Give the backbone structure.
Amino acid sequence: MRRAGAISLGFPPFQGWVRRIVLACAAIFLLQVILDAYAHGLAGYLGYAYLVPQLVLTRGMLWQLVSYAFLHASIGHLLLNMLTLWMVGSLEELEWGSRRFLELYFFSVIGAALTTIAFAYAHIFGASPEVGTIGASGGILGLLIALAVLDGDREFMMFPFPFLLKVKYLVGVMVFIIVIETIQASPLSRVANVAHVGGLVFGFIWAKWVPRRGLGSEASERYYGLRNAWHRWKRKQAGKKFEVYMRQHDEKGHFDQNGNYVPPDDDKTNGSGSRWVN
């Protein structure tokens, strides 16, 4: 990430995928409130969007690895998460691009979910496979830790307090608080904090080891590289079989290392000492 000065008092642009995610979370929370108030029977179906480790592993509800991040427990929970997402996510989306921002956010969301499932089945910190988890905090903490790793000296205005704090110190304070709360909190609160830890860990992994062009581009390059290697191998195998056929019929000619047919006495080159490869 390029170097930049302190973030000013003005809010960043409310646009792009950050706006879409914030509006989606707000709309879903409004739906939660309406169903809780007027349709208790339908409200129960929202439980299938919670992250419940038992449902993910035994019933294959894999969408919960993402859907839980669009649900929130209270208006304060929603506002705190969405304000942080707006402030941090908009900055990263503007500087890194939408694709990298989305990759980091959902990598952290899914990583937080997988961490929660692992802790639940290991019964660490009182976590249980039957307990549901909701909230975007895991993804947002992934955004924060990645910003701290890649641009830790950037300063944030600690609204509503009139002073600046570097991102690396802000994240350090948050990690300390999360660790203390995880140890001291009630079992249900500990489950939520496990998701926070997972978001931090996976955000750190993304920032330290994922290539700058992103997981999508890296996976695409590896896929096409393997596919091309497979096709070259198939051409070589076909060339060997054809050479055997030609020898059996007293024909001359052969195939080069790339599987291209070389007629007898053909020594044409491309000017660089190697034959043309199509």
Notes: Residues 185 and 193 are 9 Å apart (CA to CA). The chain has two domains: 16-210, 219-262.
